[in-house]
Amino acid sequence: MADKPRILINGKDMFWSLVPLLALIALVAIASGNCSVGLNQDPADSKVPAFDVVTALDADARQMPFPIRRPPTPEGWKPNSGSSDAIEGHRVSTVGWLSASKAYVQLSQTDASEDLLVPYLGGSGTDYGDVGATGTREAGGRQWVTYETAEGKKFWITDFGNVRVGVLSRGPDADIETIAASVATQQPLDA
């Protein structure tokens, strides 16, 4: 059988030429294990790599010029991130978890003032005009000032004198309260 003349080749021929190629790409992606469609939505079963909060906060306790507290990871939560940053010359230690309610919860500790910590937690470029104080809450025997951004990000801040602690989430207040109460009752780690 002779090939079709070039003038008779159309979009349907192109489509049927691509089908085997797309099937091969899908097979390779699935077989490699690096592809997920995210139907499960369970942080415990997700491909999000675990993060070692204990080691990270121990290292920060040795390096930061202020005391660091380490709350235990709540049951059903998955530690997933950590970083060290700076706010106008002040250091910030940050770790994060995926909560049992599938929300991200972040704990930041710094020797920066609350005036510097609020825009830092509110997001880059945020000033007090974008963040509103919404009141106070008590957790772990401490008073926390509560804030919320226009985008719905909530965070609580408390002052330990030589360190400010902020807990941030877009999830339920119960997730913020879990970490806030836990960190407030912890003694600083040995430097």
Topology record:
Blueprint: H1 11-32, H2 53-63, E1 78-87, E2 90-98, E3 104-110, H3 114-122, E4 131-139, E5 142-149, E6 154-159, E7 164-169, H4 173-184
Kindly list the characteristics that best describe this protein.
191 residues, alpha+beta, Protein Transport Mog1p, Chain A, 4 helices, elongated
- What are the segments in which pLDDT stays under 50 over at least 5 consecutive residues? none
Q: Within the CATH hierarchy, at the fold level, what is the topology of the domain at 53-184?
A: Protein Transport Mog1p, Chain A
Strands, total number: 7
The best one-word shape is elongated
Oligomeric status of the shown chains? single chain
The CATH architecture designation of the domain at 53-184 is 3-Layer(aba) Sandwich
CATH first level of the domain at 53-184: which class? Alpha Beta
Pfam family, one: DUF4245
Protein name: DUF4245 domain-containing protein
InterPro entries: DUF4245
Region (Disordered): 65-85
Question: How is this structure best described in words?
Answer:
- Residues 65-85 are annotated as: Disordered.
- InterPro entries: DUF4245.
- The structure is a single chain.
- The protein has 191 residues and is an alpha+beta fold.
- The protein has a domain at 53-184: Protein Transport Mog1p, Chain A.
- The protein has helices at 11-32, 53-63, 114-122, 173-184; strands at 78-87, 90-98, 104-110, 131-139, 142-149, 154-159, 164-169.
- It has a seven-stranded antiparallel beta sheet with strand order 1-2-3-7-6-5-4, with helices on both faces.
- Strand 1 and strand 2 (90-98) form a beta hairpin.
- The model has no long low-confidence stretch (mean pLDDT 87).
